[in-house]
């Protein structure tokens, strides 16, 4: 699933030079992207709220930002930035988070991500459980061009 | 601390006219927030009359100061939605939805970075408030813009010393923000934010490989005697008598 995520990211970026990657200090799946597109990725450090607003600013300049982090840090911490900067402004930003950290304690477990994403007006939610669904979700979100949140979690892992 | 000469800066006819129009437009549309609108008026006039050109973009991050902003946009043939905080409407010159503090600065960083990436010219200007400077995203953004050497970004702080519930110095002071910005890697200027001459001088200053911060010392409610430096005029609604006096003083 993680490998598929990294591979689909590179496939999309090869076809569309507007694809730009932002991530907050978590990069293990993105080594190939970083290597291939050194001018199109930003490790923003630990400032998730700023990272979301930055992605909105990039989309307002015609880029297609993809923002990656761990689901609770991606959705819950910058919730208002997503509400205003991404959802209200209806910008083509894709937020992708992993939610498969069942042994990492409460800080790394999201609330019901499906429930949170359903609150937004314009954002489409995707919750893939395997590699095929991951690829399909990413391509679908890219093609639709409206804001999207993709939260990835391996099949068989419990809902939190 | 910068010597605040604002009290002796005489407001010219243009400054008074924009304030009168601000009054009329906000009244007709149920708006208020005169204090922060009038502290920011000269900054907005300088940007729109003398600075913004071509590919440049301006973000009013302190969205509650929207009425003089709408007046200036409408003068230029735009027709922005007239609500108490701006909505994104690029055709009408509104480049970002703002109102909740701390969003415009990082959005401006995203724009400036995108332009670097796409090798597109044009400058991004963002106006933030001093109360807004308390937000965590302001400090995250200060670190980020300096790290990325965004010399196509200028952030202006409307330092009017007053926020929604009182004086900034009593609530959560931002003393030293300029020095900190300088240490992080910004070009920092402090000016009288009601002096067009001082504002234009620093707005035109080059800032190579560094983002620019302009700390504009202003007076909240500038131009209306009973509003100047009075916290309640952050968002108070004037009665008929006060309204008449304000309009008279702005003639």
Description:
The complex is a heterodimer of chains A (160) and B (251). With 160 residues, chain A is of the alpha/beta class. Helix content of chain A is 42%, strand content 18%. Chain A has a six-stranded parallel beta sheet with strand order 2-1-3-4-6-5, sandwiched between helices. Chain A is globular, with a radius of gyration of 14 Å. Helix content of chain B is 40%, strand content 13%. With 251 residues, chain B is of the alpha/beta class. Chain B contains ten helices and seven strands. In chain B, the strands form two sheets. A five-stranded parallel beta sheet of chain B has the order 1-2-3-7-6, with helices on both faces. In chain B, strands 4-5 form a two-stranded antiparallel sheet. In chain B, α1 (13-28) crosses α4 (66-75) and α3 crosses α9 (196-203). The interface between A and B is medium-sized, with 29 and 28 residues.
- Morphology call of chain B: globular
Chain-averaged pLDDT of chain A: 93
Strand tally of chain B is 7
Question: Radius of gyration of chain B in whole Å, from Cα?
Answer: 17 Å
- CATH level 1 class label of chain A: Alpha Beta
Segments of chain A where pLDDT lies below 50 for 5+ residues?
none
Query: CATH homologous superfamily of chain B, by name?
Result: Thiamin diphosphate (ThDP)-binding fold, Pyr/PP domains
Question: What is the average of the pLDDT values of chain B?
Answer: 95
Oligomer: heterodimer
Number of helices of chain B: 10
**What is the terminal separation of chain B in angstroms?**
32 Å
CA radius of gyration of chain A is: 14 Å
Largest sheet of chain A: 6 strands, parallel
What is the name of the CATH topology of chain A? Rossmann fold
Instruction: Give the overall silhouette of chain A.
Output: globular
**Count of all domains of chain B:** 1
